[in-house]
Every structure is written in structure tokens, then in C-alpha cells.
Write a structure and sequence with these properties.
Elements (H helix, E strand, L loop, with lengths): L5 H13 L11 E3 L2 E9 L2 H8 L1 H7 L3 E8 L1 H13 L7 E5 L2 H7 L7 H5 L11 H6 L1 E2 L2 E2 L2 E6 L1 E6 H7 L9 H11 L21 H10 L16 H17 L9 H9 L5 E5 L2 H5 L11 E5 L12 E6 L7 H11 L2 H11 L16 H6 L4 H10 L2 H4 L17 H17 L4 H21 L2
Parallel strand pairs: 2-3, 2-4
Antiparallel strand pairs: 1-2, 4-11, 5-6, 7-11, 8-9, 8-10
Helix pairs in contact: 1-4, 10-11, 11-19, 19-20
């Protein structure tokens, strides 16, 4: 019997396993009491919740279409959406995915080509999208997902705490400077940690910020010949730095803290610094959500051996190929990613709540310019500079900055993050975590060497 390639084995395993996850979802395109019901799977982040709150506006303008949102935490949403899309299950009319999935799923034929819909929609203006964001959601010149918000990563810090301690944050800090600041500002008596860093398992959770640290330390997941590099000196240095920093000066319960947990921790005044997605700024400066409004500075992602270190990411809306009512689905997608929606959010919830990092026109709105004065430029600079050539020391055979752009990374990245999380929790050593991760990575690398 001929031996299957690594990619074929991965795809078959995915299709066999993910079907077990497809429970408890109503079918897409169902007929409701008012007509058509669109089922939309989204991640339960604050900006997405604003879209849910505004659904009545869409339904009022589109009588006969009812929106049903399936909101899930990030890790669960990824698993559910991947399972449904990979098996062409048809559970969702619209699904929230990222620039990690979009090019791969478009190549697999799992997604509807949105370019014809974009081109025939007056005023939608896809040329208004920031080019790097638009390109990251394209396959063979056509967009297969439309961006809801875009982000890089940066460091926020409490200007008042720095001033009280006589410290000055540089515009382009190094990770060693950040570690030194964290040590000086960590205050168990007041309950303020020196820094907040994700430790929650998940390739899109803790592994996102950690990967940028690994990159700037000169590490990489695979060399150009797909040899796993998890136990390389550079990777070990990055892992030890990250784990030690969060263990010594990070938040309580760091091994289970993701973006949402760190966001709450920082907004409640319980951390002096937080390194994460640029989209954090909207929550930090929202009086309804934050106790530190106006007290924050924002600077570039910390570096070690590279000029830049920020990631590039966008949560976007895609239409599964098997969606039953594609015209209605596009009507919703174009509404949620339009210029008009940006203004609806700003006037309804406040301009700090506007989805950032996607449309250039957003940054020309006077109200948004005033609200986002502290973080608009660092956000755009981070997105603009988020390229492998700026953020990595050595060449790699895969696309992506904070992820490895191959299908296997959903599993591989999650496994590695679980090992690092266990090291943060003190259950295993960093060396043990990396040795186990190396084994996982070697099997993936071998499958790619077989198909070269």
C-alpha cells in the first residue's frame, strides 16, 4: 500500500476527528418566524459583542432576515468553526476566521470567493482596507474574507506608575528593559503585577505573544529544510525568558490567563504593563470598562535582535462554500465590515469601541482621531511594519509571524502552548516542555520533507 504524504494524513485525520465536534448547532439558513435566519459564528471578544448588540439595526433595514449569533471563547470558536468548515457541515452561514485560516481554506475550496460580491456592492470600497490586511485575506488576487478588525501587537504601560517610580519607557523598548521595569514595578502589597502576559494554552492564545518573543530572540519553529528547532539555543533562551518573566512578575494564575483575562486584569489597575494585541487599547480607554482611562502609554512591541517584533492579525468574516443563502449572508457581512458600521459603533458605544486597524478612512474621522490619539499611530505603525523581514532573524519556510501558516499548526501550536503553560504553572521545567514540543514538531517537519 502506498504511503500517504504528511499533508494527506493530516487532512484525513482532521476530517475524521472534527466531525465528532459538530453537535448543538442549529443548521444554517434556517427558516424562522420572520423568514430567513442567518447563523453566524463569532469569537466573544468585546468588539464582536458590540456587533451583536447592533443586530437590531441590521434586521430593521433588512426585514425578513433574522441574525442568530453563536458566540464562543476563542479556542472553542476555532475548533467549532474549523470542524464545520472542514467537513462542509453547513452549520454556519457566516464564520469568523483570521488571516491564518483564510488563504489555506480558500485553496482547499472551503470558502466562497467574495470578490464578485465586493465588486458589485456600491460604496463598499475594498480599496479603503489597509493593504497588508487586505492582502492577508486574499488568495490568487481575490478576497475570501473581509476584515472586521485588524491588529499588530504593542506594549501598554501605566504612565502614572512609571512616573511615581522615576522610570521612563522608551518608544522602542527591549525585552530586557521590560523585564527590568517589571521587577521594579511588581508590587504584591498593592496587588499590581509588573506585567501581564498570556499563559493560557492555545495556538492563538499564549503562543501568539510568545512567538513574537521567540522571533526577536532569533528562534524559529522550523529551519528552511523543515527541521524542527524547538530545542535550539535561541528557542530555549526565548522560552526561559518568557516563562521566568511571567512566573516572577506576571499576573496571578498566569497559566490560565488569555487575552480576555489579561484585559480585565490590566483595565482594573492590577498590572503596570501589558504586552498584547493593539486592539486592547479600545478597552483600556473605555470608561465603562476600565479604571485606567487616560493613564496609559503605548509603545512598539519589545525587541531583542530584530528591528520590530509585532504580529499581523485580523478577525474577519468568511462565507462557507455550502452557505445556503449567500446573498443574505453577504448583505450581513458587508454591513458589519462597512464604513457605516464604524460610525454606528462610534456614535452608539463611543469612539474607543470602533473596530480598529482595518479601514484607512476610520483614522480620518475627527471623533476617532481625538479618542484614539494615544494609540492610533502605534497601531498603524505596528501593522505596517509587521513583516517577516522586520521581525525574524533567520529565514523560514512558512508564512506567518505569530503563527506557522500550515494546517498542522492548529494542533502543533496548541500542543506546544500546553507545554509552555505547564512550565509557567511550575508542573514541568522549560527544558522538559521544549523536549516534548520538539517531538511534536519533528513529526510535522518530517511530513513536509517527504512532500518536497
Amino acid at each position: 500500500m502506498p504511503r500517504r504524504s504528511g499533508r494527506s494524513r493530516t487532512r484525513l485525520a482532521l476530517l475524521a476527528v472534527v466531525s465528532l465536534l459538530l453537535t448543538s448547532c442549529a443548521g444554517a439558513g434556517a427558516i424562522g418566524s420572520g423568514g430567513r435566519t442567518l447563523v453566524i459564528a463569532i469569537v466573544s471578544n468585546p468588539q464582536m459583542e458590540d456587533a451583536v448588540a447592533l443586530k437590531g439595526e441590521f434586521e430593521k433595514e433588512n426585514p425578513g432576515i433574522t441574525l442568530k449569533f453563536v458566540q464562543l471563547p476563542e479556542n472553542q470558536a476555532r475548533a467549532k468553526i474549523t470542524a464545520s468548515t472542514a467537513t462542509q457541515g453547513g452549520e454556519f452561514d457566516v464564520a469568523m476566521i483570521s488571516n491564518y485560516e483564510t488563504p489555506q481554506w480558500a485553496a482547499n475550496g472551503w470558502l466562497e470567493n467574495l470578490q464578485p460580491y465586493i465588486d458589485k456592492t456600491p460604496g463598499y470600497d475594498a480599496n479603503d482596507f489597509i493593504p497588508s490586511i487586505r492582502d492577508s485575506l486574499s488568495h490568487q488576487g481575490s478576497m475570501y474574507a473581509v476584515p472586521f478588525y485588524g491588529e499588530s501587537s504593542f506594549l501598554t504601560y501605566r504612565k502614572d506608575l512609571f512616573q511615581q517610580a522615576g522610570l521612563t519607557m522608551p518608544e522602542h523598548p527591549t525585552w530586557q528593559q521590560v523585564a527590568d521595569f517589571a521587577a521594579k514595578l511588581d508590587n504584591p502589597v498593592t496587588g499590581v503585577s509588573g506585567i501581564c502576559l498570556r499563559g493560557k494554552p492555545g495556538w492563538g492564545e499564549s503562543l501568539a505573544p510568545f512567538s513574537t518573543v521567540a522571533n526577536t530572540f532569533g528562534a524559529r519553529y522550523f529551519d528552511e529544510n523543515w527541521n524542527a528547532q524547538i530545542t535550539s539555543p535561541e528557542f530555549k533562551a526565548a522560552a526561559n525568558f518568557y516563562v521566568n518573566l511571567v512566573r516572577e512578575h506576571g499576573e496571578v494564575g498566569a497559566s490560565s490567563a488569555g487575552f480576555s483575562e489579561c484585559g480585565t486584569h490590566y483595565a482594573q489597575g492590577q498590572a503596570a504593563m501589558w504586552y498584547d494585541a493593539t486592539v486592547m487599547a479600545g478597552t483600556n480607554e473605555d470608561p465603562a470598562e476600565s479604571k485606567v482611562v487616560g493613564k496609559n502609554g503605548y509603545v512598539a512591541a519589545p525587541v531583542e535582535r530584530t528591528a520590530e517584533a509585532g504580529w499581523l492579525y485580523t478577525w474577519s468574516l468568511a462565507m462557507p462554500k455550502v452557505a445556503k443563502d449567500k446573498d443574505a449572508a453577504w448583505r450581513f457581512m458587508s454591513w458589519m465590515t462597512s464604513k457605516r458600521f464604524v460610525k454606528q459603533v462610534g456614535t452608539t458605544f463611543g469612539w474607543n469601541r470602533v473596530p480598529p486597524g482595518v479601514r484607512r478612512s476610520t483614522y480620518e474621522i475627527p471623533e476617532y482621531q481625538r479618542a484614539a490619539a494615544a494609540y492610533a499611530k502605534p497601531t498603524l505603525d505596528g501593522i505596517d511594519k509587521a513583516q517577516q523581514s522586520n521581525t525574524m532573524v533567520n529565514p523560514v519556510p512558512y508564512p506567518g509571524i505569530q503563527f506557522v501558516g500550515i494546517p498542522e499548526f492548529q494542533d502543533l501550536g496548541t500542543r506546544i502552548s500546553q507545554q509552555l503553560s505547564a512550565a509557567i504553572a511550575g508542573r514541568i521545567t522549560v527544558d522538559e516542555a521544549l523536549e516534548q514540543s520538539q517531538e511534536y514538531a519533528e513529526s510535522v517537519g518530517e511530513s513536509y520533507r517527504e512532500t518536497r
